[in-house]
# Entry
Amino acid sequence: MGIGTFVKQSARSAAAPARRNRASSGDLILVAVTIALAVFGLLMLYSASPDFSLWTYGSAYYIFEKQLLWMGIGTLAAFVLSRVDYHIWRKLSVPLMGLTVFGLIAVLIINDVRNNAVRTVSGGSVQPSELAKLATIIYLSVWLYSKREHLHDIHLGLIPLALILGGIGGLIFLQPDLSAAVTIFILGGLLFYLADGEMRQIILFCAVALAAGWLVVQFSSTGKSRISSYTAGLQDPLKSSSHVLWSLESIYKGKLFGVGIGRATTKLIGLPFAATDSVFAVIVEELGLFGAFGLASLYAVLAWRGLKIAGRAPDSLGSMLAAGLTFWIVIEAIINMAVMVGLLPFAGNTLPFVSAGGSNLISTLAAIGILLNISRQSGKTAPLRAGTGSTPGSRERKTYSASVDLRRRDRRRSVSRTRRPANHAK
# Structure
């Protein structure tokens, strides 16, 4: 009996360091799915971009070569951020947001018009609105974490949140970049919900957001045209915008297994922005519905691992960061794919890891790096809560469960009540 007990204890003690080593190396499934998405994205961009690249830049491989460069920079950023403790963002979130606001203002001042919008600086190489999505998630996660005891006060919760989102979203709207502005508001609302914002404040936030959306549709020519073409397409697919019609033609040609990589023809005769906004249509034409399902499955795995990391994070800051970054990547993918089949009004959201563009690719890989750092710290003791007079033994409790229900708080008693012994005299 003694030998058996010793063997079992030895096995458990040997397994514990193995589990700690796996945690310290990060979420390997997330690494694998990221590599798969990145390689798949390069392959499909190589197929989708030559014609557009030759017409625009005079070289059939210019876009692909630039994407390789951005991929290298993004991979380096992901590696560095996976090694940097995510708590450092408590110090860097304000400078990061300040830099983001500076970039958004610089876009409007430089006024580099491309495709009837001013969204880039540095000759079109940098798009601050894409970087603003990452910066907003980081800043709001830190801000909500620091205000977590006061979120039920509308003057300290919802109103400051509305001012933050209104400022960033307004600067992006002026470019105009409606899809990025809408994404910012969606992410802000989700983070406020996950931070346990009061339900009546959340309902008020949604009502104000819907009212703002209605005003945009009424007074913005871009918003009005997109909504009108969307509603017309719902009634009769043949009345959809030309962009959606070309996309639907690509999907029809692809059928179940596609025409083969590099053999799509719609990208050559009319499909607009085949290397960026419409790359999903090229994927379906060349790989069919089977390829589209495979790509969607990769995003589903990424969502699963991201939410798993959020559930196992050492503290609520890590949980909000992980959930926000995961939702951002997945929401971008869902919107892009849904637009291409006419299920949502047209938006300029990119397809993460696939669409051409350095700003989005670097930001997305940076987000993966932060997720990996949070996963590397799974199981570690959460830091002391500042200003609570906690003793070394009293640590911040995790506010998210390990399940998908990220909003559930600690609603049970933290200390069980003492019970009288059964033989205690009454």
About this structure: Residues 26-376 form one domain. The chain has one domain: 26-376. The two ends are 43 Å apart (CA to CA).
